[in-house]
Design goal:
Elements: H1 12-23, E1 26-28, H2 29-36, H3 40-52, E2 56-63, E3 66-73
Antiparallel strand pairs: 1-3, 2-3
Length: 74
């Protein structure tokens, strides 16, 4: 018997991202990258998938002439 699940969560990295956001209202890109041990491109792809599925929103901030992403769960 197959259960119904959201394809947005078929990858363990996306599940880990959502787990982190369940206990942290905001989390930045570099911290995600460090804790998940993934590349920039890999993380960006997973975040884009979750954002497109409307599980997270990404707020881009300019801080000290360097872009830093903050993520908000909803």
């Amino acid at each position: 018997m197959k259960g119904n699940y959201d394809k947005a969560f078929e990858n363990v990295i996306r599940l880990q991202i959502m787990s982190i956001l369940m206990v942290n209202e905001q989390y930045d890109f570099n911290s995600f990258k460090e804790i998940l041990e993934v590349t920039d491109g890999n993380l960006a792809s997973h975040l884009r998938n979750l954002e497109n599925a409307e599980y997270i929103s990404v707020k881009k901030n300019l801080c000290r002439a360097k872009a830093s992403d903050k993520l908000l769960s909803y």
